[in-house]
Design goal:
Belongs to the glycosyltransferase 15 family. 44% of the residues lie in helices and 11% in strands. The protein has 19 helices and twelve strands. Bound molecules: guanosine-5'-triphosphate and magnesium ion (MG).
Length: 400
């Protein structure tokens, strides 16, 4: 039998627990951990939601503004409001071979299910070869009505090793990499791909009518619903480069990339932005490169940044140096160095709300981002703050 004094102790204990929760719920980090969403925030104007105007514009690691999830958009996807909404001139860009079909279908299906069923952006598929009918039919079968699918072949000169490259030297470089077991060190097509992504994709005629792109690769994962339009977010906030994962580059693939970059900025100091992100890519004021880069298999970017004067001149310089073939320069360090040097650091945006995996790393959104996006990744499985990631450095750099 409970005695009266025992019941009193129980009441006091329950009261203390309740008070603790009440006080703790005021703390944003506590709310993040338990997925707290304030009451009365379950529905919102879908057009406003789609515009992304609800997004916090404060520090990038701050708690997100309390808005609802994508249910509203699912319900409203065929409404006039959504159909006639303001859009960016933007498209997904997918470079692929016919043999990448299954992986492409997998990535596109997720993009459709998580975002594009309401956003209705176009897809531009690019290939060094011609896309076959099966590739075209099966991709179109997944892409919803309202989005165009365009298929383009890449110009011979934009893809293949230029004639003026000294093949003997390039071959010696490849053999050295094979000896050193550098990933894709043997491969000429891989080098073509890296050079194309560095200097040519944004010049393809199928992209001429677009200002923004989202690069998508086969076999990636998109873990979360996206209930706002990241292209509009780029446009409205003046972002020029968006990323989710960052890491260190294999030094053996870029032995002379930084030396060439230093030569370029000595010749063209006018292109280096005064509020650049150099401290994120160099620990000694630009003397050496610390190998940090944004992982470019995911990019949401401004095509006009790559088409602009600074990047055009930088790419020309790198192209002449020949390192895409004599070494194995990746488009990831090339894009990242350019973004870090030629942009205002505030024009580079970490899309920490977009859950994404490209083997073997993933970014899984944390706290309220995860809850709102109905993400399907384990928040504990997150590369961001592991030793090989450069994201902690970014957060630290941006908080100064
Ligand atoms: N058309 C075409 N596309 C290619 C070729 N090589 C790579 N790609 C595409 O270029 C992108 C990058 O190639 P990946 O092989 O994924 O390179 P990676 O991401 O560094 O390496 P993985 O770990 O293999 O994914 C992908 O979208 C590929 O489909 C090629 O020879 N032709
Ligand atoms: Mg890949």
């Amino acid at each position: 039998m409970w005695s009266i004094p025992r019941l009193r102790y129980l009441g006091v204990a329950l009261g203390v627990i309740f008070l603790f929760h009440l006080l703790a719920s005021i703390s944003p980090s506590y709310r993040d951990r338990i997925g707290f969403l304030p009451s009365g925030q379950k529905s919102a104007d879908p057009a406003k939601l789609a515009s992304g105007s609800h997004l916090a514009s404060g520090p990038q690691d701050s708690t997100v503004a309390p808005v609802p999830n994508s249910e509203d958009l699912r319900a409203a996807k065929d409404s006039a409001e959504i159909k006639n909404r303001r859009k960016a001139r933007a498209a997904f860009v997918i470079l692929a071979r016919n043999s990448d079909l299954a992986g492409v279908l997998d990535s596109v299906k997720q993009m459709e299910d998580r975002f594009n069923y309401w956003a209705k952006y176009d897809y531009v598929f690019l290939n060094d070869d011609e896309f076959d009918d099966t590739f075209k039919e099966l991709t179109q079968n997944i892409i919803g009505p309202g989005s165009k699918a365009l298929y383009g072949q890449i110009d011979h000169d934009h893809w293949n090793q230029p004639k003026w490259i000294d093949e003997e030297r390039a071959k010696a470089g490849r053999e050295e990499m094979i000896r050193n077991q550098v990933i894709y060190g043997f491969s000429v097509p891989y080098r073509n791909m890296c050079r194309f992504n560095s200097g040519f994709f944004f010049r393809h005629k199928l992209l001429a009518d677009y200002d923004y792109y989202w690069r998508v690769e086969p076999n990636v994962k998109f873990f979360c619903d996206l209930a706002y339009d990241p292209f509009l977010s780029m446009m409205d906030n003046g972002y020029k480069y968006g990323w989710t994962l960052s890491l260190y580059e294999y030094e053996l693939t870029i032995p002379t990339l930084w030396a060439e970059t230093k030569k370029f900025i000595q010749d063209h100091p006018e292109y280096v932005h005064k509020n650049n992100a150099m401290p994120w890519i160099s620990d000694n004021g630009g003397e050496t490169y610390n190998l940090c880069h944004f992982w470019s298999n995911f990019e949401i970017g401004d095509l006009n940044f790559w088409r602009g004067e600074a990047y055009t001149a930088y790419f020309e310089h790198l192209e002449k140096a020949g390192g895409f073939y004599y070494e194995r320069w990746g488009d990831a360090p090339v894009h990242s160095i350019a973004a870090a040097l030629f942009l205002d650091k505030s024009e580079i945006h970490w899309f920490q709300d977009i859950g994404y995996r490209h083997e073997p790393f993933q970014h899984c959104p944390q706290g309220e981002y995860h809850t709102r996006g109905k993400c399907t990744c384990d928040p504990a499985d997150n590369f961001d703050f592991e030793g090989y990631s450069c994201t902690a450095r970014w957060v630290d750099f941006m908080s100064k």
